[in-house]
Design a protein that fits this description.
Elements (H helix, E strand, L loop, with lengths): L5 H12 L5 E4 L6 H10 L4 E5 L3 H14 L5 E4 L6 H4 L8 E7 L14 H14 E11 L6 H13 L6 E7 L8 E7 L1
Parallel strand pairs: 1-2, 1-4, 2-3, 4-5
Antiparallel strand pairs: 5-7, 6-7
Length: 189
């Protein structure tokens, strides 16, 4: 297959904006795959901040990072992404080069615990302030579960209203597959 998956595409976009030694946020750590990707991308001289409301996700991610020898450059917060303002150190404000969101629920976890439009939009509003010029936010949007379409619609509507002189926004989706995940990419100018 030549076309990348939604997650492969998200990582590809982030790799453009996130240099070695950079600063990144995984807003929904889940099982830690994106957290590990970000840690590898920034290398030992960079830093990654990760958020998740489920302790199971934090533990799974911490284990994955330890196994890969990347735990020292990642700080995990067992709380919602909309609390970034409270948790991120002031010295990284306006300096985050990559931020990833995988919306929905924890794979192999409780499908009733899902990300919510209100807190996701709040996290995005905060994220755009903390993002460096040239930095990117990627959002994998999943619509095949209860609440997923509503959240995806809210996020796309919010992103569509971002001022074009300050942000570029792209939306990517496989259109011939029912409930295919889509990817929203936001670049700060």
């Amino acid at each position: 297959m030549i076309l990348p998956s939604t997650l492969q595409s998200a990582r590809s976009w982030i790799s453009y904006s996130l240099p070695r030694g950079g600063t990144a946020v995984d807003a929904t750590v889940g099982n830690g795959y994106d957290t590990l990707f970000l840690a590898e991308q920034v290398g030992p001289e960079g830093v990654v901040f990760g958020f998740d409301i489920q302790q199971e996700a934090i533990e799974s991610t911490a284990r994955r990072l330890r196994e890969a020898g990347r735990q020292n450059q990642v700080r995990l917060f067992p709380c919602s992404h909309h609390r970034m303002d409270e948790k991120l150190p002031a010295e990284v404000k306006g300096k985050i080069q990559g931020m990833m969101f995988n919306l929905g629920y924890l794979p192999h976890g409780n499908p009733e615990i899902i990300t919510q439009p209100q807190t996701t939009i709040e996290a995005l509003q905060i994220g755009t302030v903390w993002l460096a010029p040239g930095g990117m936010i990627t959002l994998a949007l999943y619509t095949g579960h209860p609440g997923g379409q509503e959240e995806a619609d809210a996020v796309v509507n919010w992103a569509s209203a971002l001022p074009p002189k300050q942000f570029q926004v792209m939306w990517q989706q496989m259109v011939n597959r029912r409930h295919a995940p889509s990817l929203l990419v936001i670049e700060k100018r």
